[in-house]
Amino acid sequence: MNSPDHAAPGLPGLFAERAGDYRAGMHHCTEDELPGVLAGLLAAAAKVVLPPGVPAAWTSGLAVPTLLDDRGLTAADLDEAGLSVLTGCAVAVAETGTIVLDAGPGQGRRLLTLVPDHHVCVVRDEQIVADVPDMITALPDPTRPLTMISGPSATSDIELNRVEGVHGPRRLDIVCVHPAI
Q1: CA 127/CA 94 separation, integer angstroms
Q2: pLDDT tens, 150-173?
Q3: C-beta of residue 112 within 8 angstroms of C-beta of residue 85
Q4: How many CA atoms lie within 13 A of 48 on its CB side?
Q5: Residue 177 host element (H or E)
Q6: Number of C-alpha atoms within 13 angstroms, CB side, residue 98?
Q7: Which of 8, 41, 121, 142 keeps 20 to 30 A from 91, CA to CA?
Q8: Which residues of the chain have pLDDT under 70?
Q9: Rounded Cα gap, residues 10 and 94, in angstroms
C-alpha cells in the first residue's frame, strides 16, 4: 500500500464517526486486544468463514464450532443462518466511512463479503485515508476490482423507509486497531 505509516491525526476518529452514521458497529482496540475483540464479536456465530491470508493471530481466541476456509464456497453455502465472515481491508476512507476491499490477502472475493449475514472487518489506523482520491493513491493496484462498503446492506422503499440486510450483511462490525500508547 502507498499510504503513510500512520494515519493523519483525526482520520481514525472521522472514519469511526462516519461508519457509525451508516450503522456499522464500531469497536476500538490495540493489536494485543484484537483477538479478544474478534472472539467477542464472533461468539454467537455457528460458523466463521476466513478468506485466504487472514492472520492466524486473529483467530487464536475464537471459540466457534466451525471455522471454514473460503475455498470455493457457493452463494448458497454463504447464505446459511448464523454464518459470519472475518476479513481485513485494503484501505478505509474517513470522509465517507467506507471500507474498501480489493480481494487481496485476508479480504476474500466479493461473494464472501456480500452474502453472509454478518461481516467483521479489521481496519488499522494506517489504512485510513482522508478521501476517495487518496484511496486510489493508497491502493496497491488500483486496477483490481473493488468492493466498497459503507455500513450494513440497506435500501429504501418508495416512502424512503430504510430497510437493512435485504441484499447483503445485516450486520457490519468494524474493528479499528490503534497503536498501543
Answers
A1: 10
A2: 877 655 566 766 555 555 678 899
A3: yes
A4: 24
A5: strand 171-178
A6: 16
A7: 41
A8: 1-9, 153-158, 160-168, 181
A9: 9
Q: Alpha-carbon distance 119 to 84, whole Å? A: 6
pTM of the model: 0.88
Q: Which residues pair with 84 in a beta bridge?
A: 48, 118
Contact 178, 128 (CB under 8 A): no
pLDDT tens profile 111-133: 888 888 899 999 999 999 999 99
**Cα 3 to Cα 30: distance, rounded to the nearest angstrom:** 20
C-alpha cell at 158: 418508495
Q: Are 39 and 60 in contact (CB under 8 A)?
A: no
List, in order of start, the domains of the chain with CATH numbers.
11-148+171-178 (3.40.50.10420)
